[in-house]
Design a protein that fits this description.
Strand content: 35-45%
Structural class: alpha+beta
Distance between the termini: 69 Å
Largest sheet: 10 strands, mixed
């Protein structure tokens, strides 16, 4: 009789844990499902780098924002402890133009590259050197902000595609 009571007590103790774990798994799957639902953006960032700047007060940065979701979003602002002035830019021909926001298409990408769309950082707190990492926070119209640590590469660095 004693073993039976112990087994019942153990089952009673384990059962709530199993139910809680099942709820967590179900909730996790639901969140993942919502992130990839057709009505929401699902953003990730890759390929980020900042070439070591030649000047002490200005730099540029590049990365790709991928949207696996079914709704577009817009990159509206980028902030960094390195610079109080991080601005979004496009390049048309040989002319660089300030952009208020950059489109991240549904099921698509926003790619920031040399000679194209990019970030400009002004009034640098210090001149970053190769090997350092610079923190950025990307702000979007509808999605939560994304924090990234961007490696400083050589001035001549070109990413492998």
């Amino acid at each position: 009789m004693r073993k039976s009571s112990t087994a019942t007590a153990a089952t009673a103790a384990v059962l709530p844990l199993a139910v809680a774990a099942g709820l967590l798994l179900t909730t996790g799957c639901q969140s993942e499902k919502n992130a990839l639902s057709p009505g929401k953006p699902a953003l990730s960032v890759s390929g980020a780098y900042l070439p070591q700047p030649a000047m002490t007060d200005m730099a540029a940065a590049y990365f790709t924002v991928t949207n696996d979701g079914g709704k577009a979003d817009q990159l509206t602002k980028v902030t960094s402890p390195l610079s109080p002035e991080v601005t979004l830019h496009t390049t048309e021909g040989s002319q660089m133009k300030h952009a208020r926001q950059l489109e991240v298409p549904a099921k698509g990408r926003l790619t920031l590259t040399r000679g194209g769309t990019h970030l400009m950082l002004g009034k640098l707190g210090h001149k970053p050197k190769k090997g350092e990492k610079v923190e950025f926070t990307l702000h979007f119209a509808t999605s939560a902000p994304i924090k990234i640590k961007v490696p400083v590469e050589s001035a001549t660095y070109r990413p492998k595609d």
